[in-house]
Amino acid sequence: MAVLTFLWEHCSNYRFFSFIKVVIVVPSLYLLIRAVYRIFLHPLRAFPGPKLRAISHIPHAIAGTKGRAAFDVRDLHARYGEVVRIAPDLLSFMTPSFWQDIHGHAAAKKFPKYGYFKARGDAQPLLTADEKDYPRQRAALMQGFSERAIAGQESTLKRHIDLFMKRLEENSERIDMSQWFQWLTFDLIGEFALSNHPWVAILVRWFRAVSFATNANEFGMLAPVLMLFTDIKDLMGIKIHQENAAAAVKKRLEMEDDPNRNDIWSYILRRKHENPLSLGEMEINAAALLIAATSPVADTLSGAIYFLSRNPKLTLSSTSKMPYLHAVMNETMRCYTPTPGGGRRQAPPGGATVSGHYVPGGTVVAVYQLPAFTLPNNFALPDCYLPERWLPIDHPDSPKATLTDEQEVFQPFSVGPKACIGKGYAYAEIKLILARVVWHFDFELLDNGFAVEKQRAFLFRERPPLNVKLSVRQH
Ligand code: HEM
Ligand SMILES: *[C@@H]1O[C@H](CO)[C@@H](O)[C@H](O)[C@H]1NC(C)=O
């Protein structure tokens, strides 16, 4: 402020400087008044959180562009409790009842999605479809995700996994499992295109750019200016990925239908004359699915191998059997949430009650999975990788210490009508791959480059190499 007063006093004789004065003083006053309003008068003033975050969206946006947003939100929850005002209009919850209050079947209609970046202008994928198109798209895609459809894919999965296992054996001395899981999961969902590995490398650029744009959009008219600070290669990644996906859809549409082929696309393409999805929607859904079905699954698989390697007593063959396998999947997604952030929703105009807190209309609410799953409020021994906590309580290995865990807060796929459409597919796929790998190989971490606490996350994890030495087990 001293600088402003100085300018004001010394420059007032010059017409030019009086222009500067207006340019500097008016916005400063506006920001000052807004800051006072946001701290003392805003409807969210009573919610705990740092003052700076109540004043401005900048700290949250900066954390986002650094890939640290969810980690910072965890630190805030650790300090301020179960509800925190993490930006002027944005509340983060880590309460178990949050899920049903916001995302459940009764609530979902009242709480629309907020701030989802639309990577393509003229057609939307399911995730960003508006209320008018959403039900039609969800119904069209659901067919490919039914239990029957997933069961019908088992032989395709097996064929890919067989090949994958062979490649692992050939490269067993030193192999970056993170990379190989990414290739495998991409091949599994991209059956219609079959692997183009330079393409896979673009995925991380796509979600970094989308994450950046989502943050930039918070600044309204300034957003296009902020976009100048994105890595141009990341932006190009959006374009290239979407063009590749569109080309793959085109190729697939030209192919003869093979009745033995029962991947997700065959269900949509068999009905192409009924137009369940427009061509643009097919293209952009293909692009979205190639990301949504690849990154979080490869995250979970990589995380599992990482944690199991560090906990050798778990790499017994028992891990590959039920119910341990399920417990390992859940514990991996708890300690290494593939989607550490949270889909934002906006409270209805009249306000609503969320986990016992009155939330005024227009407030944006989110649950950040990373804090919700890794703070002691919800899980005992939160930093311990302890698959046994997921075993049935009458199981001999079920630990006493974790009986108080709030297991319902663990919803890595979200809940309600807009929850992950691929949940069943993901569990089936992860189970199959993990069981095969753990049953067949002993693995040894070659370095600690994967250290999960140092990683960044943009929508999904940005995984460093997971270098492992594999040896075939003698059963
Ligand atoms: C471990 C694996 C996975 C995790 C943790 C995960 C997590 C999620 C979450 C939290 C959402 C809700 C997003 C929001 O509300 O903003 C979501 C949505 C979605 N997921 Fe997944 N997902 C996984 C695997 C998959 C797979 C394998 C597929 C496809 C084969 C898939 C396709 C989708 C789609 C299309 C949506 C949008 C649903 C909608 O808006 O109706 N996901 N996922
Ligand atoms: C894993 O977590 C899900 C919650 O998404 C839960 O329904 C399931 O019972 C859990 N599995 C085990 C083995 O505890």
TrEMBL record:
Gene3D superfamilies: Cytochrome P450. GO terms for molecular function: heme binding; iron ion binding; monooxygenase activity; oxidoreductase activity, acting on paired donors, with incorporation or reduction of molecular oxygen. InterPro entries: Cyt_P450 (IPR001128), Cyt_P450_CS (IPR017972), Cyt_P450_E_grp-IV (IPR002403), Cyt_P450_sf (IPR036396), Cytochrome_P450_monoxygenase (IPR050121). CDD domains: CYP60B-like (cd11058). Keywords: Heme, Iron, Membrane, Metal-binding, Monooxygenase, Oxidoreductase, Transmembrane, Transmembrane helix. It holds the Pfam family p450. Heme binds at residue 420. Its cofactor is heme. The chain crosses the membrane at residues 16-37. Belongs to the cytochrome P450 family. This is Cytochrome P450.
